[in-house]
Amino acid sequence: MYKGKLTNWKDDKGFGFIQSSELNQDTFIHISTLKKMSRKPKVGDFIYFEVEKQTNGKYRAINCRIEGVAAKTINKHKPRIHKNSSTPKNKVIFLLAVIAISAFGYQRLSSSLTTSPNQYVPSAITPNNPVSDTKSRFSCDGRQYCSQMTSRSEAEYFINHCPNTKMDGDKDGVPCENDSRF
Q1: Comparing C-alpha atoms, which of 81, 8, 2, 19 is closest to residue 41?
Q2: Which side of the chain, N or C, has fewer Cβ within a 10 Å radius?
Q3: Helix H segments across 78-120?
Q4: Which residues pair with 47 in a beta bridge?
C-alpha cells in the first residue's frame, strides 16, 4: 500500500491526482474508490492507496482511504420490519363472507318456515269453517289438467283453490267429468 498527497482534485468531475514519493508519476484517483469515506477528499489530504495498471499503460489508485478520516459505517443486512397491511383486509373479507353466508342461511330457513304464494293455507278453524284432511294434503303447484291429478279430491281442491286450472270444461264446478279414472 502506498501513501501520497492529493495535489489536484476536481470536485465537480469527481477525480484528481496523488503525488507519492514512492512512485515515479502522479497517480489518478476517482471518487468511486473513496466510497467508504465519511467525507470527500480535499487537496492536501494524505491518501493510502494501491495501484492498478490500466489498459492504456497509465496507473490509477484503488482501495483508497483518507488519512485521519473515519470510514462510513455500513449496516449490512439490517432487518426490515414489514407491517403486514393485508391482515386487516383479510379480516374484513372473512367477516363479510361470514355475514353473507349467515344471511343466506337465514333467508333459506325463514322461507322454508313461511308458505309460498301458491301454497294453500287453511284459514282459522272455526265452527263455520271446518278444515278437512283433504285440503291440508294438497297445494297449488302449477298443475292444470286432469291427467296431472291423482284423485278426484285433488282435482276438486285444484279447481276451487288454484288459478288457471283447465279441468272444468263446461264450468259447472265438477272437475274431470270425462276422466274414467275417478
Answers
A1: 8
A2: N
A3: 86-113
A4: 4, 66
Helix or strand holding residue 45 (H, E): none
Give the predicted TM-score (pTM) of the model: 0.40
- Domain assignment present for residue 182? The answer is no
Domain-embedded: residue 90 = no
Higher pLDDT, 20 or 131: 20
Closest CA to 24 of 54, 44, 62, 51: 51
Instruction: Supply the DSSP string of 2-44, one letter for each residue.
Output: EEEEEEEEETTTTEEEEE-TTSSS-EEEEGGGGTTBSS---TT
The residue to which cell 473515519 is assigned: 70
The CA distance from 133 to 62, in Å, is 107
Q: In 3D, which of 75, 63, 59 has the Cα closest to residue 1?
A: 63
**Domain boundaries, position 148:** 114-177
Report if residue 93 sits inside a domain: no
